Amino acid sequence: MFDIVLSFITSFLLTYLAIPSIIQISAKKALFSEPDHRTSHFHQVPALGGVAIFTGVLFSIIMWTPFKYFGDLQYILCAFIILFMIGVKDDIDPVSPGLKFIAQLIAAFILVFKAQIRITTLYSIFGVGDLPYWLSIVLSVAIIVFIINSFNLIDGINGLAGMISIISSFVFGFWFYLVGRMELTVIAISLIGALLPFLKFNFSPAKLFMGDTGSLLIGLTASILAIQFVEYNKMLIDSEYYVSSAPAIAIAILIIPVYDTIRVFFLRLIKGHSPFRADKKHIHHLFLEVGFSHMQTTFVLSAINILFIIFAFKFNHLGSLILFLITFGMALIIFGFLRFLPKKLHLDQTNAKN
């Protein structure tokens, strides 16, 4: 417990102390995120907040993870560093989507093959139990890349990606603490400790964005925690902390980024567009269209995410498939309702305040 508290304090302080220097250097070197037709902000804002988040998380993990847990953790740190490098490069001098995808694949392969972070069972969803080795690898890599990109995609308004990451990290981290997985608890708590001071500067009016450096890191961390939650849970069948619908609960914990990514990919495909084509059709854009501010949207979506988590744990006994269908059906209804709300006429005046 002592190491967990210290990991939080360490990442919090390092990130908090690093951010003012990053803002100052960004202003001096003109390293800004420029507003354009794809963005929801209207002013130049430094986009290197992910550097501070990465620094706090990495130092805290190395400092406070007991050495006996550090076996596979070294490979997790390698994956972190790969995405950090491509993220910083993209935030300073944009790189092609293909290069970012290759970096994500490399990070995913390191996690799957070296750290053995992979899905090995589907908990009898559609009658499928243990997976063949090759399918386990393919599915695990796909899940990791998908979750990384889902957090990258929701990082479109102030505070949203950070808040959702804090919520998911807290839930996963608390569960790992209860079952004695201290190394995963430290990862989750270190990320929370780094994101809290970042949000102070990211809430409207935003003085700093996390950029791809931050969104790729929190997406990778979420994928690790989600897969390990599903995998370690299956070994606790006689424990009071065992959950019979672990895959569905993992999805519920990440419902906002997961649902939003599936939704926008589907909408783009039915229109004949590339699923990776950027647009302003995300859930948070719909909230902005009906008149919500950035912060109102962030807090509403965070509250909805929490309600989904509570619901999933409450109805864990239903089984993964049924719980997943109910969860996804609820998301369709809740967010589909936005289309029936009147659009705000002077959207630019509302968003100019953000």
Task: Please provide a written account of the structure.
The chain has helices spanning 2-29, 49-64, 73-92, 97-114, 133-154, 160-178, 182-202, 211-233, 246-253, 255-270, 283-289, 294-314, 320-336, 347-351; strands at residues 32-33, 45-46, 121-125, 128-130. It is mainly α and 354 residues long. It has one domain. The strands form two sheets. A two-stranded antiparallel sheet has the order 1-2. It has a two-stranded antiparallel sheet with strand order 3-4. The longest helix is centred in the N-terminal third of the chain and has 28 residues, at 2-29. The protein is globular. Mean pLDDT is 90; it is low at 345-354.
List the helices and strands and how they pair.
Layout: H1 2-29, E1 32-33, E2 45-46, H2 49-64, H3 73-92, H4 97-114, E3 121-125, E4 128-130, H5 133-154, H6 160-178, H7 182-202, H8 211-233, H9 246-253, H10 255-270, H11 283-289, H12 294-314, H13 320-336, H14 347-351
Helix pairs in contact: 1-2, 1-7, 2-3, 2-7, 2-8, 3-4, 3-8, 4-5, 5-8, 5-10, 6-7, 6-8, 6-12, 8-9, 9-12, 9-13
Low-confidence parts, pLDDT < 50 over ≥5 residues?
345-354
Number of domains: 1
**Which class of secondary structure composition applies to the elements?**
mainly alpha
How far do the termini sit from each other?
39 Å
- Helix proportion of residues, in percent? 55-70%
Order of helices and strands: HEEHHHEEHHHHHHHHHH
Strand order of the largest sheet: 1-2
Q: Describe the largest sheet.
A: 2 strands, antiparallel
* Overall strand count: 4
Estimated share of beta-strand residues: under 5%
Rounded radius of gyration (Å): 20 Å
Q: Helical stretch count?
A: 14
Shape: globular
User: Kindly state the mean pLDDT as a whole number?
Assistant: 90
